[in-house]
Predict the structure.
Amino acid sequence: MLSLRNQTITLSKKRKGRTMDTITKVNQLSFRQGLNSETAFTIKLTNSKFDSFAGSELFGKVESWVSANVMMNSKEVPVLIVDMENVEFIDSQGLQKLIACLRLMQSQKSNLLLCSQQPSVSLVFEITRIDQLFAVFPSVDKFINQFDKQGQGSEYLLAA
């Protein structure tokens, strides 16, 4: 059984005189399978460019969120699913920040998954072989369907 609860947040920063929204939506997904339950949050990136600025913003929010879960003595840190549907460009510093987010999540026995990559972003991941570090899904819906129907998504909910 899957439940979805929407929560909208807006993170805005000024850069070169303009306001930039990098992350605008966080959705909480609760996965239930048998007696076990897992929770995942999707973060939708809204900028077409994922560079050091956007990566640093994402890492800062993930770090704060993980710290809050640890301080609340949460038994588990929920999985993060980063929806990259709008990202058309990613540079090396953006890749570094994604890897840092992944390592942070894995240090808490959780995971960070990616979905909805544009072909240009997928190509960068393949060329740099970073695609081997991340579980990448065509969309959030595809991950949910795989998890709900086949129960195979559960392996991605645990840190590698």
Q: What stands out?
A: DSSP finds four helices and ten strands in the chain. Residues 2-8+20-157 form a domain with the Transcription Regulator spoIIAA fold (CATH 3.30.750.24). Residues 1-15, 17-22, 28-37 have pLDDT under 50 and may be disordered. The CA atoms of residues 36 and 154 lie 10 Å apart.
